[in-house]
Amino acid sequence: MERVSVGRLKCGLIITGCETQMSSTWHILGAGSLGSLWACRLARAGKPLQLILRDEQRLADYRRGGGLTLVEHDGPRHYAIPAETFAAPTPIHRLLVACKAYDAAPAVARLAPRLAKGAELVLLQNGLGSQDEVAEQVPHARCIFASSTEGAFREADWQVRFAGHGFNWLGDPANPSPPLWFDDLHDAGIPTQWTADITTRLWRKLALNCAINPLTVLHDCQNGGLLGHLAEVDQLCDELAILLQRCGQPEAAQDLHEEVQRVIVATAANYSSMYQDVRHGRRTEVHYLLGHACRTAARHGAEVPHLERLHRRLVDNLQARGLRSE
Ligand code: NAP
Question: Cβ of 51: how many Cβ atoms within 10 Å?
Answer without folding.
Answer: 27
